[in-house]
From TrEMBL:
HAMAP family recorded: MraZ
Family: Belongs to the MraZ family.
SUPFAM superfamilies linked to this entry: AbrB/MazE/MraZ-like (SSF89447)
Annotated gene: mraZ
Organism whose genome encodes this protein: Flavobacterium pisciphilum
Protein name, entry field: Transcriptional regulator MraZ
Native organism taxonomy: Bacteria, Pseudomonadati, Bacteroidota, Flavobacteriia, Flavobacteriales
Protein keywords: Cytoplasm, DNA-binding, Repeat, Transcription, Transcription regulation
Amino acid sequence: MNTIVGTYECKVDAKGRLLMPAPLKKQLATSLQNGFVLKRSVFQTCLELYPMEEWDLMMQKINKLNRFVKKNNDFIRRFTAGVKIVEIDALGRLLVPKDLMAFSGISKDVVFSSAVNIVEIWDKELYEKSISGEDMDFADLAEEVMGNINDDDNGIS
């Protein structure tokens, strides 16, 4: 698993192309030749960019689901809705298909935000709203999600 770090801003051109920021492109250099999968996020109004290696790992998990269970089949359909294979062109641009542009609300200013092993692609205004904290107390969320994890022998999380 490759850990991606950082938040980067750019603009989208009239054709729906995003110029990948150089520090992000450098982190993804080993993935450039294999391509990427671009999809709708499950929980947010943004897009998720999976390096192909990460997408293959996700598909291995999903392929273990029993497709004769309706709930599993419905999940697979929704999870893979709008999925596109994309590449970064020679100039470092990523073309976002129109249906995914519409889903994500991307209009002009864009934020690439690392999410461990994938990259979220947001309309800047929607991104700022999502991290503003108006709808949740981040300290409470952090305690609930990470508060019981203590993998180190030194007592430090």
